[in-house]
Amino acid sequence: xxxxDSQMEDxxxxxxxxxxxxxxxxxxxxxxxGPSIGVIKSGRPYLHESTIRRKLAKLDLDLSRxxxxxxxxxxxxxxxxxxxxxxxxxxxxxxxxYHRFRLEFDPKEYQWTDAALTCLFVACKxxxxxxxxxxxxxxxxxxxxxxxxxxxxxxxxxxxxxxLISLERQVIETLxxxxxxxxxxxxxxxxxxxxLGSDQPAIxxxxxxxxxxxxxxxxxxxxxxxxxxxxxxxxxxxxxxxxLSEDVFVNLDPTEYYTxxxxxxxxxxxxxxxxxxxxxxxxxxxxxxxxxxxxxxIKVNKQIEAxxxxxxxxxxxxxxxxxxxxxxxxxxxxxPASPTGTNSTIKRGPKGHEGTYRFLFDAAEVRQERTAYxxxxxDEWEEWEEEVEEVIPERxxxxxxDLGPEPRAPPREPxxDLGPEPRAPPREPxxxxxxxxxxxxxxxxHGGRGGHDSGWxxxxxxxxxxxxxxxxxxxxxxx
Length: 479
Fold this sequence. Notes:
The chain has helices at residues 5-13, 49-58, 63-84, 88-102, 112-126, 133-144, 158-175, 184-196, 200-216, 221-224, 227-242, 246-250, 261-277, 290-306, 317-322, 363-377, 394-397, 400-403, 461-469, and strands at 17-18, 38-42, 357-360.
């Protein structure tokens, strides 16, 4: 049974470690639970608008700041792609990789130029339009410095080449090894041919629609909707803006092209927001009067209001009421955040205890494997209520005021039976510490400090008094 978009999102979004509770949980196989299956990750082909905003809020990014960095990164990819003459499918893949990469990592950990060039480098590999990292860096250098044209073998690109290779792993893990690219231009060509045929009006219409489709990849619309929805929205929006075969494409039934009216309206409004806010950064906006985009946007809004179609499909109503957290920044909202350093290094955390990362492509297989694993590791608990009478001591249950005053301590036992109190040991004679009263200098007198004189006898205060009163001039003492 095929999974719906919501089920695939739930299955791929829950990157939870399935560790064994009784075993070691790292694959050792000890315990009854068995080895851990690690962390299962599967690719997410589509993202809802609420999911995108939640990821931006988690990275502390507001929409205006994210939009500026997104536009500059996609414009850099387009410039390098045109310089190297790469096909449109490489541009589509690189833009999708770039949008997903920026939703996973904090912009303070890397520079947006390095991320954009790395995504283009990975897209060249996945779409078999191989270009070396030095060639991409050289093309970017020659675009910025046309007066100093250089070659890819210049030593100037040694450090940048290593940086792109180091970021390549992060991009691949962000994609979860899902390199599928959906090209709406093939379906767009079939729609135009089925409606207008192969005459010159059809060719002129497709040229303008090609510009609208290229500008669409500067938004998140390709991440949210299918290829048929994007192709049908491009055709109808081109007819509304340019006026070419407008009556024909407006009256087309979207269900015949495997899509719905509300999905088409959301894609058109996303692209119209880009045209009204950043018309000079788009291909079609440089040729059309900005007032034309505003008129078309008003017309589309009236149509969805009349049909009672919400602006975003599968949007979180609770988040819409409470609002997504949008932090304020002191810096300019028109320039992306760039770190102060010159290197883009994303710090990888230590190898966690949850086990090995495993990447699966089928969401149904992820659910089946997790269900089979939880049958052997799931802890089951049974709850029941039992009344037990607990004996509470009366003293502990009563208050202190009810117990009266604190009980006095029992009297001490008389010592008559134990004999007299033991006397303290006699004090040590002062001679052991030296004489301090009959000598001025240290170490002199009877015994000095720390000595003991066995012939020393104490004197009293009358000895000194009688020495001054006697008739003898020698002042002999009593002794």
